Here is the input.
Amino acid sequence: MNEWCFQSHSPEDTDRLAETLAPLLPDRSTIALSGGLGAGKTRFVQGLAAALGVPREYVVSPTFVLCQIYYGQRVMHHYDLYRLEREQEFWNLGPEEAFAAPGLVLIEWADKFPNCLPAEYLEIEIRSTAEPDQSGSRAFYVRGHGGPFETVVARLQA
Amino acid sequence: MTRSYPNRCILALETTCDETAAAIVDEQFKVLGEVVASQDRLHEKYHGVVPEIAARAHLEQILPVIDTALRRAGVTLRDLSGIAVAYTPGLAGSLMIGLTAAKALAVALRLPLLGVNHLHAHIYACKIATGQQIFPCVGMVVSGGHSSIYVCRGAVNFELLGGTIDDAAGEAFDKVAHLLGLPFPGGPFLARLAEEGDPQRFAFPRPFIHEPDRLQFSFSGLKTAVRYTLERIREKGELPSQLVRDVAASFQAAVIDCLVAKAVRAVQMTRLPRLCVGGGVAANRRLRAALNADAEQGGYELIIAPPKLCTDNAVMGGIAIEKLVVGQFDDLSLDIQPGLVRV
Here is the structure.
């Protein structure tokens, strides 16, 4: 596992991170997002979707419907585990299909069920850094798990 | 085949989220019988709708719910002229149970299958409740999963004008309620607390309010602003209960300001004569009052679904009567569509 940290001082900074990351992601990439309520997980997915040609407004919080699919330059499966209590409930959504498909799988609140993640994935943990105010500075800890994603992190570090 | 009821009537099923519901509605939109089996108590300890519980409970409840609705209506399966079912949007597992039951009944009884868009049905609740013509209108659905504004030209002609770009209004209520430590379902508890709070104590953001022509909502930043406010207060120690009420009231006021501003603007932009509002959040007393106050000044007609028809129910599936009348049937290839359909 290797790690790279990105400081975001605005939603636009977050978009730049997403734009940088998008072309580095191999097919069948799973991105595990964590960080509390309001950390900016959905906001990051919006940036990534925009970088892949999906209209930003198509990407809304999947808290209610649990999974959304966007068809951009790459297919994106967008999961949200916020309301789930047990691993089985996640498996009931059929994520194996998404993991096996070419394209990207984004999972919000992924830290709830670490056992459900594939062997190789990219982890992004978002932490508020500034004094609690509305300027919203965030630190994005990007961690590569497994060869292909360690390569992604290495390229970010370079 | 003899019928015990003279008018054509349909069975409508609703299993999009946590309610298992069935209703018998006739072609005059008279509700002959209905049942809503709520799963709220099952969900309470999980702070939300848990899909596996929802799907399993739907499976257990769907047949008794249909039987009860028929019995209350005083009709039998032979009296039906169509089977309506909400097939989009919602939780995949839950939608599947309603749609499968509807298909089985349609095949066994050789009746038309009538697919219903759950969000269109929420707006149509305004017609069923009042009996008056509602089209054309601006329709707004505000619920746990959705905050959408439509141009509604007819029962089978809805065009999405805009919606939330992140969290739905009801989702924001529930998540902020969770931040405030309130039990599930958080929204109604938060609204009750807000009644005793000062809505001007905290100036929470009202996204896009200064971009009037942008018919969109964003409640994610509002949620984050509440979180920051609570963290700031908690740093200084305990959270006094009056402050909690003030946060609740100020948050609710911000959400309502956004909803009202955009709904009213949609009426102005489309120049349609009326605004129809449905969905669970439309049961909120303050929202209803704010919408009413604006409609009086604005010179358009306002219809808000009665609270009983705001939360999920099958009666609003009576919108399918309009499809039955024009012969717009679905075939057995009709599939669930869990996500929001953009047309």
Summary: Helices of chain A lie at 11-21, 41-51, 87-91, 95-100, 147-157. The mean pLDDT of chain A is 91.
